[in-house]
């Protein structure tokens, strides 16, 4: 659960920065949020979740 909350907060910060700095229009951000909402309810949601979990595991396994 902590990972998903962290990912949501990170993505929210990125969207806010894009709206303020990169000229992303609020309407575009709303469309992206709605797309993500409906995508989460689709049959692809488990595959996307597995992919994001694998990527985060790979990043955490990197040793610097």
Textual characterization of the structure:
- The protein is mainly alpha-helical and 64 residues long.
- It contains 3 helices and no strands.
- The two termini are 26 Å apart.
What's the helical proportion of residues?
Answer: over 70%
Question: How many angstroms separate the termini?
Answer: 26 Å
Q: Hey, roughly how much beta strand do the residues contain?
A: under 5%
Radius of gyration: 14 Å
Distinct helical segment count: 3
Tell me, briefly, the overall form. flat
Question: Which segments are poorly predicted (pLDDT under 50) over 5 or more consecutive residues?
Answer: none
Mean pLDDT: 84
Largest sheet, in brief, is: none
SS content category: mainly alpha
Number of strands: 0
**SSE pattern, N- to C-terminal:** HHH
List keywords for this structure.
81% helix, 64 residues, single chain, flat, mainly alpha
Give a short overview.
The chain is mainly alpha-helical and 64 residues long.
Layout of helices and strands:
Layout: H1 2-21, H2 26-40, H3 45-61
